[in-house]
Amino acid sequence: MNILNYIRHGDTFLLKRINTSLKCKSLDIIMTLATYLASNFSLITFCLFTELNPNPFIRLLGVKCTVSLMLSTVVAQIFKRAVNRIRPFLIVNDLNIKKIGIDKYSFPSGHTTAAFSIAVMISLFYPDVIFLLMPLASLIGISRIYLGVHYPSDVFAGAILGTLSSFLVFYII
């Protein structure tokens, strides 16, 4: 088995383990709510709220969050179109899925990219909250696997992309 098949097999195995072994009514609610924390509406509302804040430090945070979010989203969309990885619930049998609004391709996870982009940027401004925000961003990523719309590698790539975007924007812009 070549390395790509090995990774693909491991990705599918881990997806099925998370998606089927954790399944319960409480997590159905929690994971759906978690995934919506990184929705366009939630993130745009956060960015606008911070950008319009009278405190210049919070306003700067808002601007940098917006730029990081835009950068990471553009890069994620380029990857989605270049890789064309079909969402797991369309090709993997026996997944527990919850129908949510999604596009066709899964790599990288846009929700995870956005969650890490915002969480890392806030943590760079306010380092004491990193222990709250990183688990929250991770929960958003795990929710995408739990809901059957992403493979673990999609989520991992999204976390890396969002994190790199925030560091780039924080230190360069």
TrEMBL record:
The keyword Secreted does not apply. One of its GO terms (molecular function) is undecaprenyl-diphosphatase activity. CDD domains: PAP2_like. It comes from the Bacteria. SUPFAM superfamilies: Acid phosphatase/Vanadium-dependent haloperoxidase (SSF48317). One of its GO terms (cellular component) is plasma membrane. Signal peptide: none annotated. Its EC number is 3.6.1.27. Gene3D superfamilies: Phosphatidic acid phosphatase type 2/haloperoxidase (1.20.144.10). The keyword Transcription regulation does not apply. Keywords: Cell membrane, Hydrolase, Membrane, Transmembrane, Transmembrane helix. It is an enzyme of class 3 (hydrolase). InterPro entries: PAP2/HPO, PAP2/HPO_sf. PANTHER family: DECAPRENYLPHOSPHORYL-5-PHOSPHORIBOSE PHOSPHATASE RV3807C-RELATED, SPHINGOSINE-1-PHOSPHATE PHOSPHOHYDROLASE. This is Putative undecaprenyl-diphosphatase YbjG. It comes from Clostridium magnum DSM 2767. The gene is ybjG.
